[in-house]
Design brief:
The complex is a heterodimer of chains A (about 350) and B (about 220). Chain A has about 350 residues and is α/β, with parallel strands linked by helices. Chain A folds into 2 domains: about 240 residues, 3-Layer(aba) Sandwich (Rossmann fold); about 90 residues, Alpha-Beta Plaits. Chain A has a 6-stranded mixed sheet with strand order 6-7-8-3-9-10, with helices on both faces. Chain A has a 4-stranded antiparallel sheet with strand order 2-1-4-5, covered by helices on one side. In chain A, strand 7, helix 6 and strand 8 form a beta-alpha-beta unit. In chain A, helix 4 crosses helix 5 and helix 5 packs parallel to helix 6. Chain A starts with a strand and ends with a strand. The model of chain B has no long low-confidence stretch (mean pLDDT about 95). With about 220 residues, chain B is mainly α. Chain B is elongated. In chain B, helix 9 packs antiparallel against helix 10. Chain B starts with a helix and ends with a helix. Chain B has one domain: MetI-like fold. At the A-B interface, helix 2, strand 6 and helix 3 of A face helix 6 and helix 7 of B.
């Protein structure tokens, strides 16, 4: 059974002015998140990602649909049951949301006091958590004395205090510089691997997905338009909106605008060859180029990139191919196995 | 000058009375204002105890009573003071009315300062399963403590100001002293002596308030 299961979940906000249309932030979303997953939710801002995760710990009540967390129906829970549910779901935020009036130590202790732990147990747990995130020496510092990365590490320690099975990360690295982002992602990876915490990460950053996520859902205008293994979704996005999003983070098949620019500079037919590990073997590229040469074609690599997602490689190479049309068509018809071809419309 | 020396015991007495009136008014008005301010803050739309009717009522009540000039309020609320404290005149009556007026004034100061607390901080506490009451008491108030301290300092000085009209209903204090022994007896030296004492009190209050706020804000 999935740890978190969403069925036809909708969240609509009433309009502020009477008679206006309601805003549907999340629109009939169904998703299953298995225990141990690191589930990425990606999409442009305003796609409904933040609202979606806030439905999981019921910070926002759903309008319709069903959410099961660890077998418990979340919708319709009373205030008291909700508080118990939330003890089992940690959350970290883009702006960290640390308590500025409390020291690092007391920030981490807060959820433990909420959970009703005694003084001695709280102290032991806080020390353990601060050691885990590497901030034992900052226990008595106040949040404003910390760097962004340190603040987020406090946020992570605080979110993990009550040993939740699920961690929600709302753009947790978006306010951090690239180096600090890597530090925090490495920490989150340890959280997942060492403690088996299921993580749901909202992000618009490729880095986060690449290094952390095992599965991914693409959201657009409140809907999940595509979901699955990260490698599958990123190497072969099927929906137009996920293609658009993926193309902003990986160099894949060139967009119409990019093709126009390429065409200006490079005569010939623009053909994109896609390779995915597991489908095309290591010799495929060599055989492809050899085939093109053997057909007497002239070609030039004009666009593309190779991407590594959790150790699996895929790439898209766009070539400008020049020669007789029949020869090109012949060569494209005899490609090595596993290589996919997309040809730009000839303008 | 000789008059002033002769009046020194009365000046001392008036200073003590002012401190007594102001101190008790700040205590009662401070608690009342904190409660009403918390009410305004927590019931406003989108807040943790969001309740439109309660918020609307509180809002109207505060808006109606807060702008009344204190000297008029003192006269208007005299029957109420009499009903509650048993007397409509003297220091007891003025402490009652001043506390009431301060409640309305302070409630807005409290509300505005609580609104400076970042909503994300409250969301973080909710995500930990903290109850709403716990969030208000252990999070919202401590997070706003610095600005709240400055707000209360500001209000305390306003109370010193308002307390000067105590003589109007037979109360004592520095205002009464200045009018009775200074103004009415054409003795500016005595009037200015009262002024100086008030300036010293206000400066002391401001100094302490700033110090406490700095401590709360750690700057």
């Amino acid at each position: 059974m999935p740890l978190v299961s969403l069925r036809e979940v909708t969240k609509a906000y009433p309009s502020r002015s009477r008679g206006g249309y309601a805003v549907t932030a999340v629109d009939r979303v169904s998703l299953d998140i298995e225990a141990g997953d690191v589930y990425g939710i990606i999409g442009y801002s305003g796609a409904g990602k933040s609202t979606l995760v806030r439905l999981v710990n019921a910070l926002e009540p759903v309008t319709s649909g069903s959410i099961l967390v660890d077998g418990v129906e979340v919708t319709g829970l009373g205030e008291r049951e909700l508080r118990r549910l939330r003890l089992g779901i940690g959350m970290i935020f883009q702006q960290f949301n640390l308590f500025t009036s409390r020291t690092v130590w007391k920030n981490v202790a807060y959820p433990l006091r909420v959970a009703g732990l005694g003084r001695a147990e709280t102290a032991a747990r806080v020390d353990e958590l601060l050691a885990f995130v590497g901030l034992s020496d900052k226990a008595q510092a106040y949040p404003e004395q910390l760097s962004g990365g340190q603040k987020q590490r406090v946020g992570i320690a605080r979110a993990l205090a009550t040993r939740p099975r699920i961690l929600l990360a709302d753009e947790a690295t978006s306010a951090l510089d690239p180096e600090t982002t890597h530090e925090v992602l490495a920490l989150l990876k340890r959280v997942n691997e060492e403690f088996g915490v299921t993580i749901i990460v909202i992000t618009h950053e490729m880095d986060v997905i690449q290094t952390l996520a095992t599965k991914v859902a693409v959201m657009d205008a409140g809907r999940v338009v595509e979901h699955g293994e990260v490698f599958e979704v990123f190497s072969r996005p099927r929906q137009a909106s996920s293609q658009r999003f993926v193309s902003t983070v990986v160099r894949g098949v060139p967009s119409a605008a990019e093709i126009a620019v390429l065409r200006e500079r490079h005569p010939g037919r623009l053909v994109t060859f896609s390779f995915r590990e597991g489908e095309a073997d290591a010799g495929a590229q060599g055989r492809l180029f050899a085939g093109l040469s053997a057909a007497g074609l002239e070609f030039e690599l004009v666009y593309g990139g190779i991407n590594d997602i959790r150790g699996r490689v895929f790439g898209h190479l766009t070539l400008a191919v020049r020669g007789a049309d029949a020869a090109i068509d012949g060569a494209l018809g005899a490609l090595p196995a596993g290589v996919e071809v997309t040809e730009a419309h000839r303008g | 000058m000789d008059d002033l020396i002769r009046l020194l015991p009365q000046l001392g007495q008036a200073t003590v009375e002012t401190l007594y009136i102001v101190g008790l008014s700040l205590l009662f008005g401070g608690i009342g204002g904190l409660l009403v301010g918390l009410g305004l803050y927590t019931t406003r739309p989108g807040s943790i105890y969001s309740n439109r009717p309660v918020f609307a009522v509180l809002n109207v009540v505060v808006n109606v009573f807060r702008p009344i000039p204190f000297i008029i309020f003192l006269a208007a609320a005299q029957p109420l003071a009499r009903a509650v404290t048993g007397t409509g005149i003297g220091n007891t009556a003025i402490i009652f009315t001043l506390s009431l007026a301060a409640t309305f004034g302070i409630s807005r100061v409290v509300e505005q300062n609580l609104l400076t607390v970042q909503p994300g901080v409250i969301e973080a506490a909710r995500s930990m399963g903290a109850s709403r009451l716990r969030i208000v008491l252990t999070l919202v108030i401590p997070e706003a403590l610095g600005p709240l301290t400055l707000g209360y300092t500001f209000v305390l000085i306003a109370i010193v100001d308002m307390s000067a009209v105590a003589g109007y209903v037979g109360g004592g204090g520095l205002g009464t002293f200045a009018i009775q022994f200074g103004y009415r007896q054409f003795n500016p030296v005595v009037t200015w002596a009262a002024v100086i004492v008030i300036v010293v009190i206000v400066q002391a209050v401001q100094f302490i308030g700033n110090g406490l706020a700095r401590k709360a804000l750690r700057r």
